[in-house]
Structures are given as structure tokens and as C-alpha cells.
Amino acid sequence: MFRLLRLVNRLALGLIGLVLLCAGGVVVALGAQWSVPSWWPYNGPHDTLLSHADRFRWRGDGWFWPVVIAALVALVVLTLWWLLAQPRRARLPEVLVDSGDGEGARVRGRALEDVLERETEAHDGVARAQALLTGRRRRAPAARMRVLLEPYAAPEETLGRVTDEALAHARDSAGLESLPAEIRMRAARHRAERVR
């Protein structure tokens, strides 16, 4: 899920940047009165986005302006959703580990997250686990985990095992004093069994 959001975020930023770059290039070319190709949509300093005929073409159609307004509202809502999703805490790229020689070592955050996920998924009753390390590398990082439980799993027992085993092993192996964690659990959906 985190990887998909990161991919969508990068694609959206790339597309918005490309559109803004092209729009800026058009404005600069027209402002400087450079010669532009014949297929260019605007080739004069007095050209407008919509001509007089274009603005009044659909005036009599009752569907046009509600559709335009609905599309603009949807665009504003999606932009606000995307904007509000930006300040979320970023993934911790690396964790500093005390190696005992005074120099220290760096462990990739993704490697520690993979270990947390695999060890949690190895427990009986866990269908899937996702881990995300947040915080700063010089201070104690924190973990956010999502655990999908099998229908027969006991949440209290699973939480205890994740806390006492997976998180404790990750904390000890990285030489951290503490590894605070937020663990969200939910049960996997399953079909009701027939009783005969």
C-alpha cells in the first residue's frame, strides 16, 4: 500500500510538473514573440484560451455547464486530498546502529521493515503484515505496523507475540534503546462456513 501511494504521488508530481513546464514554455514563447510552429495552439500575443464562438457554442445546451462545474469540483477535491496526504511522516531511510567501534553503522530502514514484516508473518494466525519506520535516524525511530489476521487468530495473543518477539528482535538487533510501535490489526474477510 505504501509503495503504491508513493508511485501515485511521484506520477502525479511528474505529470503536474510536465504540464506546468509546457504551459510556462508557451507563455515565455508568446511573451518574447518568438516564432512558433503553425500547429501551436496559440501563436499570437492577443490569442485567448477560448474564442468568443467557443464560449457561446454550448450556451443553449443544459448539460454542458453542470458537467464543467462537476469536473472542476472533482478536480479541486482530488487536489485537496492529495495536498492533505503530503505531510504524512516519511519513511525512515536508514537507522544508525552502534557497532561498538565508535564509528557506528547504518542499516537501511527498508531492510529493518522487511525483517519486521517477515517475522510477523511467520506467526500463526497472521495473513499479512506491513511495517513502516518513521522518525529520525539519530533518535529512536518508531514503527507503524498493519497486521492482517486470519479468521481463527487470537488478537491479544498475536499482539503479544509481535511485541515480545518481532519488535524486540528488531530493537535488539539494531541496538536501539526503544522502538515504540503503533500496531493496527484487522481480520481477513472470509465466507461463512456451512453447518450440516
Relevant terms:
two-stranded antiparallel ribbon; 196 residues; GMP Synthetase, Chain A, domain 3; single chain; 16% strand; 5 strands; alpha+beta; 3-stranded mixed beta sheet; 45% helix
Explain this structure:
The protein has 196 residues and is of the alpha+beta class. It has 2 domains: 1-47, no CATH class; 94-187, GMP Synthetase, Chain A, domain 3, CATH 3.30.300.30. 45% of the residues lie in helices and 16% in strands. The chain contains 5 helices and 5 strands, in the order αααββαββαβ. The protein has helices spanning 2-31, 52-56, 64-85, 109-121, 155-173, and strands at residues 94-97, 105-108, 126-134, 142-149, 181-187. Strands 3-4-5 form a 3-stranded mixed sheet. The longest helix is centred in the first third of the chain and has 30 residues, at 2-31. It starts with a helix and ends in a 9-residue tail after the last strand. The model has no long low-confidence stretch (mean pLDDT 80).
Count of distinct structural domains: 2
Q: Main sheet, how many strands, which sense, barrel? A: 3 strands, mixed
| CATH T-level topology of the largest domain | GMP Synthetase, Chain A, domain 3
CATH architecture descriptor of the largest domain: 2-Layer Sandwich
Report the sheet-strand fraction.
15-25%
SSE series:
HHHEEHEEHE
Q: What would CATH call the class of the largest domain?
A: Alpha Beta
Order of strands, main sheet, comes to 3-4-5
Distance between the termini: 39 Å
Number of strands: 5
